[in-house]
């Protein structure tokens, strides 16, 4: 499972980096989205990978050491929300830039041929 | 019922107050400038008073060791989020509030009408800044960084025109990527140490196993990259000059403050995590900070010489000041750091004043009107904001010239103002701490040389700009200035002068600040043993 998760994170982040280095805003935003997915999975994996651990509840018959780590879950939830919000904000600005400059190039103008 | 003393709540108020004020400002109609401005200014004045009160409390022995801890939602540290006030935090809060107040008054007659919701975004920016200074939890720091950045995205684009959109797109993209690095760093730190509370982390570093130690080092380095992107260390600071030059003047002045947040975060994390008590990791990365800071200083100096317009020049000035500070953190040692903080105060105030001033001196030359026109079109605003409203003040050229000279003196570090005192004390402290073999290391000499060269570059560039604005532009018509535009600049420059006159007491305070910062174990005791509020007895009986 470690290998699969590591590969998934690596491939997504790598593709994200390639995309954010591209000149079009659509590629840029896709790259940012891929990177944010990779980061979210990464945070989740930092609580150690495990299967079938019980969630943290007030059940007296479970050894507290057996609970799944709740903190990365909380962190990833916050990170998803914030990432979503900032990406949405960026999308608005992108559309504004497209309307104002008439080009979807990140520099706001087409490169000279 | 709450058993917490009333004054203890002051710690959380610098976050809550701008949040509430910002929220309150949203439904107020855009056309009611005066009401919006009044609300915003009231909130900022209260913030200033709060920051001053916290400074007095931190320094006056209200809390033991000058460290106040506020447990959010009454969860004991390290499980909940702890807010922490010490002398450094209080000082940064006061600096933020001072500059914010000046900027707000400056924008009263014109800039808050160019786009929409200026005051709301401004208050949220303040909330993010204050939160970033106050929090003692790394993930919470991320949240406040995002609040601050989200507000700054809006503000950078304030007065939507082509140039701002271009610079803003790059600014936002870079900061989004930096945020991902921030998250990766935080996750790695949690994986290695099992805690996100900064003080708790400092206590645990020495106890980690070898593998975890290296994981932690990688984590903090990644986190550092995110901070240094904000603090504009070379080569992470290329976004800065373009963004500063294209942002509106009040926003650019606030951006100066934001680079200092990056530097502050680096200082806080490095002092806590890699201090003397860090075992194998003690002193990790300090040399890299010094070298990076020196490279930044050099880059800033060259950039300043090469730039033509005032905004861009001020951007490179901010880079020089960041570089100096980062190098000082790297060379850390008690008295050196105190001089560094003194430099931070003076340079931030002067740089903010300079940003505002550039906008006024630009009025001497006619183009400026074109900029507003585009904004008008984009927003389809019918009535032109009556730029300079009402009567101008007399003697504008003399005022502009004098303020320009004062800012230039502080930024370049020439006597008699605070820039000189800062640099002189910095050199004195650096040469005063003799290492065991009695020789000053080459890195220190290199740094001193670079600081002097940086100052020279700054004075050459600023003099050239000054000559061009005031003397070489032929018959110039004195621009019309408002009292509300002149007063904030005067206030900021006056603060620089006061800083010079009162250098003794300020240095005493900074020495106490730095002495406190190095006591990691004291922080551990104060934060981790801060008692949560227990239920009142009669409440217990009611249950």
Structure characterization notes:
The complex is a heterodimer of chains A (113) and B (543). Chain A has helices spanning 2-20, 25-45, 70-101. Chain A is mostly helical and 113 residues long. Chain A has one domain (2-47, 67-101). The longest helix of chain A is centred in the last third of the chain and has 32 residues, at 70-101. The model of chain A has no long low-confidence stretch (mean pLDDT 86). Chain B is mostly helical and 543 residues long. Chain B has a domain at 285-364 and 393-524. In chain B, strands 1-2 form a two-stranded antiparallel sheet. In chain B, helix 6 (162-193) packs across helix 9 and helix 9 (239-246) crosses helix 12. The model of chain B is unreliable at 366-377 and 379-391 (pLDDT under 50). At the A-B interface, helix 2 and helix 3 of A face helix 5 and helix 6 of B.
Q: What is the gist of this entry?
A:
The complex is a heterodimer of chains A (113) and B (543). With 113 residues, chain A is mainly alpha-helical.
How many helices of chain B? The count is: 21
Element-by-element helix/strand order of chain A: HHH
* Total beta strand runs of chain A: 0
Give the oligomeric state.
heterodimer
Classify the secondary structure makeup of chain B into a structural class.
mainly alpha
Alpha carbon gyration radius of chain A: 19 Å
Poorly predicted runs of chain A are none
Q: Decide which structural class fits the backbone of chain A.
A: mainly alpha
Distance between the termini of chain B: 14 Å
């Amino acid at each position: 499972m470690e290998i699969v998760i590591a590969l998934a994170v690596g491939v997504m982040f790598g593709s994200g980096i390639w995309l954010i280095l591209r000149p079009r805003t659509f590629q840029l935003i896709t790259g940012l989205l891929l990177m944010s997915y990779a980061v979210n999975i990464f945070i989740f994996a930092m609580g150690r990978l495990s299967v079938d651990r019980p969630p943290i509840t007030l059940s007296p018959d479970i050894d507290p050491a057996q609970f799944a780590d709740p903190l990365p879950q909380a962190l990833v939830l916050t990170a998803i929300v914030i990432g979503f919000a900032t990406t949405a904000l960026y999308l608005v600005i992108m559309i504004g830039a497209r309307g104002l400059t008439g080009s979807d190039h990140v520099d706001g103008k087409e490169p000279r041929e | 019922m709450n058993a917490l003393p009333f004054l203890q709540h002051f710690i959380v108020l610098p976050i809550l107050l701008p949040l509430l004020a910002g929220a309150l400002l949203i439904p107020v109609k855009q056309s009611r400038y005066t009401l919006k401005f009044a609300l915003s200014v009231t909130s900022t004045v209260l913030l200033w008073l709060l920051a001053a009160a916290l400074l007095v409390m931190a320094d006056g022995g209200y809390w033991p060791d000058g460290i106040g801890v506020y447990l959010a939602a009454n969860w004991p540290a390290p499980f909940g989020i702890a807010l922490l006030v010490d002398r450094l935090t209080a000082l940064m809060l006061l600096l933020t509030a001072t500059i914010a107040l000046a900027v707000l008054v400056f924008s009263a007659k014109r800039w808050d009408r160019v786009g929409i919701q200026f005051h709301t975004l401004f208050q949220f920016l303040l909330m993010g800044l204050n939160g970033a200074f106050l929090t003692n939890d790394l993930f919470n720091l991320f949240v406040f960084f995002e609040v601050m950045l989200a507000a700054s995205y809006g503000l950078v684009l304030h007065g939507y025109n082509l140039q701002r959109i271009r610079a803003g797109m790059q600014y936002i993209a870079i900061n989004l990527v930096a945020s991902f690095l921030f998250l990766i760093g935080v996750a790695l730190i949690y994986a290695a140490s099992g805690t996100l509370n900064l003080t708790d982390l400092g206590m645990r570093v020495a106890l980690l196993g070898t593998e975890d130690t290296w994981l932690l080092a990688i984590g903090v380095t990644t986190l550092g990259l995110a901070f240094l992107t904000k603090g504009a260390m070379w080569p992470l600071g290329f976004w800065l000059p373009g963004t500063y030059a294209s942002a509106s003047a009040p926003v650019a002045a606030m951006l100066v403050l934001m680079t200092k947040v990056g530097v502050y975060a680096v200082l806080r994390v490095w002092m806590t995590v890699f201090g003397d008590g860090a075992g194998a990791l003690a002193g990790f990365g300090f040399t890299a900070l010094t070298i990076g800071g020196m490279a930044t200083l050099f880059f800033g100096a060259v950039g300043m010489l090469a730039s033509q317009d005032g905004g861009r020049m001020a951007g490179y000035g901010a880079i020089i000041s960041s570089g100096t500070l980062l190098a000082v953190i790297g060379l850390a040692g008690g008295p050196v750091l105190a001089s560094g903080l003194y430099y931070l105060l003076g340079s931030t105030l002067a740089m903010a004043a300079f940003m505002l001033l550039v906008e006024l001196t630009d009025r001497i030359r006619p183009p400026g009107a074109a900029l507003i026109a585009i904004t008008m079109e984009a927003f389809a605003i019918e009535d032109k904001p009556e730029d300079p409203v009402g009567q101008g003040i007399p003697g504008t050229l003399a005022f502009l010239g004098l303020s320009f000279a004062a800012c230039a003196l502080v930024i370049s570090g020439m006597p008699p103002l605070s820039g000189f005192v800062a640099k002189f004390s910095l050199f004195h402290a650096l040469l005063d701490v003799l290492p065991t073999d009695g020789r000053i290391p080459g890195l220190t000499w290199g740094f001193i040389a670079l600081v002097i060269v940086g100052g020279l570059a700054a004075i050459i560039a600023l003099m050239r700009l000054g000559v061009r604005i005031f003397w070489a532009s032929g018959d110039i018509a004195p621009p019309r200035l408002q009292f509300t535009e002149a007063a904030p600049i005067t206030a900021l420059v006056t603060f620089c002068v006061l800083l010079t006159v009162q250098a003794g007491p300020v240095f005493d305070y900074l020495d106490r600040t730095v002495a406190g910062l190095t006591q990691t174990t004291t922080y551990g005791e104060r934060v981790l043993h801060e008692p949560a509020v227990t239920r009142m007895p009669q409440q217990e009986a009611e249950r």
